[in-house]
Amino acid sequence: MDKTIRSLSDAVAKIGDGARIMIGGFGGSGAPIELIHALIDKGPRNLTVINNNAGNGHVGLAAMIEQGMIAKIICSFPRSANPEVFTELYLAGKIELELVPQGTLAERIRAGGAGIPAFYTPTSYGTALAEGKPVAEFEGRQYVQERWLKADFALIKAELGDPMGNLTYRMAARNFTPLMAMAAEHTIVQVSRVVPVGGIDPEQVVTPGIFVNCVVEAPDPKQEENLNREGAIYP
To answer: pLDDT tens-digit profile of 9-37?
Structure first.
């Protein structure tokens, strides 16, 4: 099955109002800027977004927030290098935040992909983040129950992909993306280069194609930090 898609706009065409979307990236590392901007052009509203942070500057995820597309964000690090867009809307009560410790965020996403509805972790016990959550004692220590995270769509970035959807990543750009690919109903991937089937050594495949629904080539992808240094604003 050939999963390649002709254009970025075609790749995000199925994403509508109210969707729950995971977006890969650790700050700008691995952020699928081209897919995010294509989604901004489409303009769905009332989205719930799961990401490690809450965007920087006026591009990528921050641009989605600035356009009023996101009703709720689930993340671990809402205040990064230049979070003015998120901060302004949050303080104005125009966007909801669910704060999740970073390791817990990754494990909740992994649990969603593995079909594990809940797990226990000592992280956040005794803090405001644990309020209202079940607590249990294991071997003399208190643990907080956390629920899986799943999504309707995942937008992720990879280095190489083949028509079957097998993927490799570039160094730290790997971050949350393999977990998100497993936890979404529909995984959309932008790759720097599409190679023929067999063009990726099977032992180098990080995300198997079974977790990928479509692949779109985006050569020379933009880097969030570079765009911000240039003062870029999208759209």
So the answer is: 999 999 999 999 999 999 999 999 999 99
- 68-88 pLDDT, tens digit per residue, is 999 999 999 998 888 899 999
Place of tokens 């927030």: 65
187 CB-contact burial (10 Å; exposed 0-12 / middle 13-18 / buried 19+): buried
| Domain 8-123+135-222 CATH (choose: 1.10.10.60, 3.90.700.10, 1.10.3720.10, 3.40.1080.10) | 3.40.1080.10
Tokens representing 74? 């689930």
Instruction: For residues 81 and 207, give the distance between their C-alpha atoms in angstroms, rounded to a whole number.
Output: 30
Residue carrying structure tokens 């302004």: 88
The residue type at 177: T
- CA torsion 150-154-160-162 (nearest 10°) is 90
Token duo for residue 202: 């099977």
Asked if 56 contacts 83 with a C-beta cutoff of 8 angstroms, the reply is yes
CA dist 60 and 155 (Å) reads 12
Phi-psi region of 79 (alpha: psi -120 to 50; beta: other; left: phi over 0): beta
Domains in the chain: boundaries: 8-123+135-222
Q: What's the pTM value of the predicted model, to 2 decimals?
A: 0.96
